[in-house]
Amino acid sequence: MKKILITGGAGYIGSHTAVELWNAGMEPIILDDLSNTNEDVLDRLKEITGKQFVFYKGDCNDKSLLEKICAAHQIEGVIHFAAFKAVGESTQFPLKYYQNNVGSLLVLLQVMKENGIHDLVFSSSCTVYGQPDVLPVTEATPRKKAESPYGNTKKICEDILVDYVKSKPGIRVIALRYFNPVGAHPSSKIGELPIGTPQNLVPFITQTAAGIREKLTVFGNDYDTSDGSCVRDYIHVVDLADAHVKAFQYLAEKGADFYDVFNVGTGNGNTVLEVIHAFEKVSGEKLNYVIGPRRPGDVVKTWADTTKINQVLGWYPKFSLEDSMRDSWNWQKSLG
Ligand SMILES: NC(=O)c1ccc[n+]([C@@H]2O[C@H](COP(=O)([O-])OP(=O)(O)OC[C@H]3O[C@@H](n4cnc5c(N)ncnc54)[C@H](O)[C@@H]3O)[C@@H](O)[C@H]2O)c1
After folding, report:
1. What is the domain-level CATH number for residue 74?
2. Which entry of 12, 150, 223, 259 is annotated as an active-site residue?
3. How many whole angstroms separate alpha carbon 159 and alpha carbon 154?
4. pLDDT band at 296, cuts 50/70/90?
5. The NAD(P)-binding domain covers which part of the protein (predicted)?
6. Residue 195 has pLDDT above 90, yes or no
7. Predicted structure pTM score
8. pLDDT band at residue 194, thresholds of 50, 70 and 90?
9. Which of 4, 68, 168, 325 has its CA 20 to 30 A from that of 297?
10. Residue 62 within any structural domain of the chain
């Protein structure tokens, strides 16, 4: 079986991707420092797949650990999820973000070069587009100045990859620009595990419905959108995980020194209020929410044009917004 190193593989998107890789006949080797997850995820992955995945607890910036992993396993590809992702925290501690998110990519590329590993899928984000001038967003849409150090780390990592591939190191790279990942595995055994107050809408919704949070604040209902609240493209995490499988299958057909980017979204925008109503519909719960003032720095509306990933990778999302809400709610309830 083709062995794929998944940095940050015990995290939200990484754990779901481990399942989809395994289902597609690839063996995930997981590296995670557990800074934003916990080791139980490995047991949960075994319950879903029947397989105890190889797991290394450690930091992706630790070159000697990466070398040890490569010496122990014939790694053929890498998915680099490992990063810090809290936008607000990144404005308080920018160096922490540059060190971890950019530093770990540099270490990883060196180790890949030294060990003859050619294929890399990199976790990028629609944050690189900022508030786009034209919607929907294609991959040719110009990137905007980053709104936060976190967003800037994604832009810088993309630029590093472009420059590196131009130097002809023999590698093949796909950067996937995720829109808004939501949902959980339909088994309810893995899902998003926010530490502290959730930064994202859907965990905040499910925690409010579960009584962990008192109420949800909708930041603004007077924007130029169908109901005045902000619009995002919410993609089910299992569909997103599948995009990584398709990316590896596509890379296998390409020659050396290849780089490309793909949007991963549904191609549809939904307002915050539509998400709340979809949640209420599938859960049967009445959500305690209030309308608050606009939040400075919020992108008003963005959603993906997915023509490229549909046509080139043959990837299409299978889950609806209602599916995402149902799976997120079941996951929340499974946490007790
Ligand atoms: N969730 C989103 O909304 C979103 C959107 C766009 C892009 N992304 C990107 O996708 C990737 C995965 O995001 P996620 O939502 O699964 O986040 P997550 O925090 O759940 O997963 C990241 C994992 O990486 C681990 N980690 C962090 N730094 C590490 C290091 N130096 N060495 C080893 N492990 C490390 C964490 O413990 C965590 O388990 C990140 O790169 C993130 O920036 C996420």
Report:
1. 3.40.50.720
2. 150
3. 9
4. confident
5. 5-327
6. no
7. 0.98
8. confident
9. 325
10. yes
Strands 289-292 and 119-125: unpaired
Tokens of 235: 């993609």
Closest CA to 77 of 109, 21, 119: 119
Buried/exposed code over 111-140 (b: 16+ C-beta within 10 A; e: otherwise): bbeeeebbbbbbbbbbbbbbebeebbbebe
Range(s) of the domain holding residue 153: 2-182+235-265+305-318
35 lines ligand 1 (CB under 6 A): yes
Residues 58-69: what's their mean pLDDT? Answer: 98
Beta strand 231-232 pairing with 270-271 = antiparallel
Distance, C-alpha 301 to centroid of its chain: 19
Is the beta carbon of 38 within 6 A of some atom in ligand 1?
Answer: no
Domain membership of residue 163 (yes or no) is yes
Instruction: Judge whether 150 counts as a catalytic residue.
Output: yes
